[in-house]
Protein 1
Amino acid sequence: MSLHDAILMGARWLVPPLQRAEWYAEWDAELCYIRRACDSRAMTFCLGAYKDAFWLRRHCPCRPLDSPLRCLALLATIAAMMLVSTGRAILSPPFRDARGLVELKDTPVDQYEAIWKNAGPAFAGFAFYRWVSEPVRTPHAMALYSIVRGTNNLFQVLNVPVMSAARGPVLFVSREMWRMDFDNDRKLAGHFLEIGGQRLPVAGVIADDAWPLAGRIDAWLLEDRTPPHAKGFVVGRVAAPGVAPTTLPRPGRRVRDFSGVFGMALIACLVVTVTTSLKLGVARDARARAFLLAKAALIVPTVYCCALLLFSADIFCPLIFQIAFVPGSVSAFYWSVTDQRRRCPVCLRFLSSPVLLGKASQAFLGWYGTERMCALGHGVLRVPELATSCSGSPQWVNLEELCAKLSG
Amino acid sequence: MAGEPKLSHTAAMILQAVGAGHGYGFSVMEMTGLPSGTIYPALRRLERDDLIRSHWEKQSIADAEQRPPRKYYRLTSGGRATLALH
């Protein structure tokens, strides 16, 4: 399949199913002729297919969101999926064995010893480690590697299954490093590696899933002595399980931290509603208002979850989250209101058959604009082309009430 | 005139091209110089407004010339009347 065919195939899925086969046949045939005539224009031609597909999608008579219940069901499904996936991403422990470990970050090594002394019987043991990037001379080359430098008891505290009787600094390499730099050499023990100018014997290989904490590590160097004033992580093994680690903020704290953002988004939505032409004229009816509120209530949490999922990975940045969430929720609210304005306030289905009435040049101070009609005959929405003092916002003409007045 | 369809400049150009015998999308593109993303939606709009009508070429004709069948467009009576007004 060529790139041109792939572009057309992609656009094909945007076309409503009933028109899809014929649409594709036409574009495919035309592409064949364009290739014969001049292949250089084929790419521009194919990209135009998306515009055509979008046009068909927009003007499709069978709209999937036409029914208000179906619209709410779809929004609720999306919101539920987003909530579940966000909940899983946030509530899942940041690393394996998280319930049995406590971790303190940016802790000086001298404090680590004090912590250990004062910890009491709740902890089975403490270890200290630093995560550094250092140049390592391997048999093949010299490159920067990600190395954990820790105290001798680090693997014991973390329950990493390693046996080593060596004294002094002990070096372990990751399985990937063993494969890439030592060509899976089974007689690895005893080889020397130069780390930061220090020649160190390799004691063994650590299995891929043996390191229970976060991060990708190339080598572990366990030392008797840690440089004074070094800062790093203090990790403790909890004697009684159930205590969560403190390296990452807890979900509850994270939600509390950003509850203020909800307020900001709400104010922004209200400002948009009041200051723009998005007046809620067509949501006066209680049912219509409930539909609008239900849409907004379902779509704003979806945006919140999207923003959390996008920016709550390892690099959780509150500012980026706020920048993403506030305009996102305003756009979502804007969509809710514009969608509402395209619907009949009685049956809440989409208005159809737009008719342009009058011309600006022929209707001085008179009304001119577009009329959209409810397919079930509930009424007509009159949307002025130009806002004037007498016809500023869209007006709903209820034909049922009008008929009742005329007949009664 | 009441009920007169309103045509944009682009739609009028495309309608004129179809009226001049450029009966398929690529030919209209060649004639007007407009991109495909403008031509095809405009053709669909004109067809929706009953100004043009489309039909598929017979498979036997396309097979005889060893090419895929083409979708042709031609003016309706309403399209001819509208074109005469523009």
Protein 2
Amino acid sequence: MKNKAEIYILIVEDEAGVLSAIVRDMEYFEEQFPIEMTESVEEARDVVKNILDHNGQLGLVICDHILPGTHGADFLVELQNDEKTAKAMNVLLTGQAGLDETIKAINEGGLKHFIAKPWDKDELINISIKLLTDYVIQNENDLLPYMKLLDQERIAAELHKGSRLSDR
Amino acid sequence: MSGSIVGLSPFKFAGLCVGIVGFLLCLILPIPGLYFAGKVTLGIFVMAAVFWMTEPVPIFATSMLVIFLQVLFLSAQGPLFQNSTLPTYTPIHLDGNEWRIANEAITEEGIIIILENGRQMPVLVDSYYSENGQVVVNSNSLNDGLQIVADVSHRRAAYQPNSYTDFFGTLANPIIILFLGGFMLAAAAVKYSLDKNITRYLLQPFGERPLPILFGLMLITAILSAFMSNTATTAMMMTVIIPITAQLKSEDLFKTALALSIPVAANIGGIATPIGTPPNAIALAAMTKSGAFVSFTDWMMMATPLVVIVLFISWLLLYKLFPPLAEKINMNSQGGFLINPKAITLYVLFAITVLLWITENLHGISSNIVAFLPISGFVLVGILDKDDIRSLPWEVLWLVAGGISLGISMGSSGLAEWMINSIPFGSFGLITVIVMFSITALMMSNFLSNTVTATLLMPLAISLVTSGALGTDFSLIILGLVISISCSLAMVLPISTPPNAIAMSTGLISTPDMARSGIIIGLIGIMIVISYALIYWPLFI
């Protein structure tokens, strides 16, 4: 029986081939973080609603910019403006976002990182590790379950200076 | 899925139910040999033990509940005792040693409670028989005019209620203040990176080869955890070893040795000083209350030689079990001590405090008093601020206070004595008793909190020693050390201690690896504890 709210990774990418490539690269996290893949913002909204309804939380969004219907940057702004998803970390993974959209994603969508296509697998994983580490340190009380996959040194340092764990 | 109603797992929910039912049963059922207060205390003991084992609520919350229940049900000012007076009765002299008393004045076992200068003395009569709804007893302990308790089932029977201040006061017990001083030192050291800088500095002489580096890491971890919490020390040392493990090949077993060495050394290091780890506080408080005084210096002289040996053996063991492939390890020892007025004041106060603690026997100023130097000093100088004080591990102090408080009632209600009497310790001999307490503590604290284990066992040790079953020469200090040190030697499972949990979370260790080293170190450790208890510690008594 799981009492803890699981932390989800959401990937939004309209090209099926690219989507499965991202998911394959992100497999590393699956052991601890369930990964949801969606092909449009409309679909992503449903998935986010479903995650929240089932007591889950949105930890990381990796989003393409050019999508059918709503664009990625606008979706990030949407998430940022909803208090239930505002804490989620986000990455804009795109080849085609112009300066204006990028600025909007940064200023209004709280964009944490921008990766240009084609991406490098290690870069994607390292950025995701950093952002998820930020997320759990900021939002989770018990950090131990996340230590194995995320930045161990930073989590250990946080356990050291924080008062989350003590002798018992 | 009844458990989901309160959001607990079925195991914890069962623990919650069993604890509450156990409490009520102890109150309701007749328990031979226990008077009312003893039954209440047994109820609290059972509920606390079940809650501490199954953790439907955090362990410190159980400790707070213990204090609350004691104040409510066992204190002189609580609703049960504030207006109650002990019913007394003067036995009627019949003939020779024969006296007539009321039916309710004698227990089924034939015990009457004689009042002597306001104190209640349970006495076993030689014989008794019923006559016309009254009881005739034969006892040479009775005299003309002597009063006895008229109703042995009365709540005050064989119990002089403690003042509620006794229970509340545990949070200001001098040992708690000593720990608070330790917490302040640790918090300041962490805030100013003193511990990490000391580590970097002290690691330098250990060079680049795996064997000495492993020893250096373990030695420094043990030294730091003797003065800081084992958990905080482990977390800090993990930040040191994680970059080292990253340079080793994935098949190099030495990664496991490194990751295991830290919790092992932290658990062992906590033994070295009174403030090293909370079970020490439970043992010290119990010893002090029973008049067996142990100074900071005494404790270190008795415990540190043991720490050194166990640490040394653990070092060789880990090296043997997980030998390195790498011949050279790059140690990044960059960074330097902070140099600013506050940091320097911290270094000075830190050094003075530790020095005064260690040398308590030379100057005679209690370490509990010295503890107030960092407590007041750090806030006066602004080394620690309001937020730093708020984030001290207060729950640990509550946990220890609850343990001390439970011990008070176990003594004063006669519960601990009753428990001890139900096992014929007197016939076992000293060695058997020491082995039993040591192994029990080791086994329990592998699954339970070390502090809780000490809390449950210490009151029994006190009663056993004061009962004289082990001989009048035997000191509580020895049994206290056996219990608290055996608790710290439990490191078989990730749940055994928070340092183990941290190390396991890195993914560098498998559970069987931890179990294997933990079992060997635990067994060797208690063998050393037992031999110290028989040979070395008696030299100090």
